[in-house]
Amino acid sequence: MLYRLWRGVLGAPEDFLSRRQYKRREDGYRALALGMAAAAGGDREESKRLARRADALLQDPDLTRLLSAQAAALNGDEAAARRYFDALIENDETAFLGLTGLMRQAMADGDDARTLALAKRAHKIRSDSVFVVDTIFDLHTRRAEWPEAQAILFDAVRRRVKTEVEAVGQRTTIFTARAIEAEGAGGFPEAAEFAAKALSSTADFVPAAVLSARTLERAGKARRATRLLEDLWRRNPHPELIAAYLSLWPLQTPLERVKRVQHLTSANPSAAESCVAVAAAALDAKLWGEARRHLAALDDGEINVRVCRLMARLEQEERGDSAAAREWLERANSAPQDRTWTCESCGAVAPEWSALCGNCSAFDTISWKQPPRVSFLPLLPAKGAVLTEDDGEGQGESDDPGKEPGERPSSPLEQHPS
User: Fold this and answer.
1) Exposed, middle or buried: residue 228 (CB in 10 Å: 0-12, 13-18, 19+)?
2) How far is the C-alpha of 124 from the C-alpha of 92, rounded, in Å?
3) Residue 389 has what DSSP assignment?
4) How confident is the model at residue 284 (pLDDT cuts 50, 70, 90)?
5) Is the pLDDT confidence value at 408 over 60?
6) CA Rg, the chain, in Å?
7) What are the backbone angles phi and psi of residue 394, rounded to the nearest 5°?
């Protein structure tokens, strides 16, 4: 008992210091965790206060530098944050965190070259980081560096950072972009090779099929190009296939072109695009009955702006009926928009497909769809007010003899509610 008492007296200071040190580290880790949470929540003052507390309690810069860097960045002190991130890079265990922090700073500054250089360094440390892989891929695609983008995409699939389902569309887009680039540079064999690879990834991709048919025809393989377009029309009828198909026989008469279109669309005669394609070709050949028969076969839900304009042209050219033609043109104002190449990111439309949106530079967002309709609503006058010429909406007396004075004339939309 005396021995234990003696050991307890001698060991009391050491135990006290150990418990005190343990409590300091516990409080330091708690401040570090709360500080990281505050930084994630955007609380600048709290994250800065907790960073100072964690640094004072732990006295381990390797642990607290990241929180100090985030707190400095939140408070707008980019220079201090950069110093902290640079210090993190010097330690092998925290180098990746330092590089990603500097990457985000470079991205915020719009410095793509520095972002890419830092991302490549981070990729060597952590090749399975989704953030790093996506950053490298986005920068290469934004700059139309297709071989580099293809390489990083292949590596991401191999390392299972991206799934095959995620990568197949991007791979098709890259192959098609490389084919277009090769064709523009006069490398027609390379263009044909890349177009074939794009079709092997996505068999129904129309831009790749049209380009492949063009390169086959140039190589003297018009029959293969014909079969390619006919097979694709059976699965995915598309207006651009008609143009590519007819370009294989550029010197044919309008009547011969009707027969070509009928042959192409016979593989999928019930499709709305088949009816519209035959009707348009028949109109060019002045085959009024054939054009009317195919346009009449369309359901109400398939009547879009293009169909309305074809009907207006048919009424005018066959019968000289200007009133009926005008009714169809008025109906086109409220009809569903024709499908076109539309960016899913910003809604911009383009006359032809491209890998990058010409408006927002987004990659792989151009698809064949109906563009968003932009409607302009007139500013209605206050209740009981009488419209005047200055209002731009008509006069106090109605221009419509069937309306009472002061009543708004009927619009084409009211006359043709469909």
Assistant:
1) buried
2) 12
3) G
4) very high
5) no
6) 34
7) 130, -170
The position carrying tokens 């050949």 is 285
Q: How far is CA 315 from the centre of its chain?
A: 40
Count of other CB atoms within 10 angstroms of residue 157? 17
**What CA–CA distance (Å, rounded) separates 65 from 83?**
9
Q: Find the DSSP H helices in 41-111.
A: 44-58, 61-74, 78-89, 95-109
Picking from 246, 298, 251, 303, the residue whose alpha carbon sits closest to that of residue 270 is: 298
- β-partners of residue 105 are none
**Would the pLDDT of 307 be above 60?**
yes
Is 317 in a helix, a strand, or coil?
helix
pTM of the predicted model, to two decimals?
A: 0.74
Apex 18 CA angle, 14 and 24, nearest 5 = 145
Beginning with the edge strand found earlier in the chain, give each strand of the sheet holding 349-350 in spatial order.
349-350, 340-343, 366-369
SS (H, E, C) 214-273: HHHHHCCCHHHHHHHHHHHHHHCCCHHHHHHHHCCCCCCCHHHHHHHHHHHHCCCCCCHH
Q: Which two tokens stand for residue 279?
A: 């009707």
Q: Could you report the per-residue pLDDT of 345-373, keeping only the tens digit for each?
A: 999 999 999 999 999 999 999 999 998 76
Mean pLDDT in residue range 253-282: 95
Distances (CA, A) of 87 to 24, 79, 91: 24, 12, 7
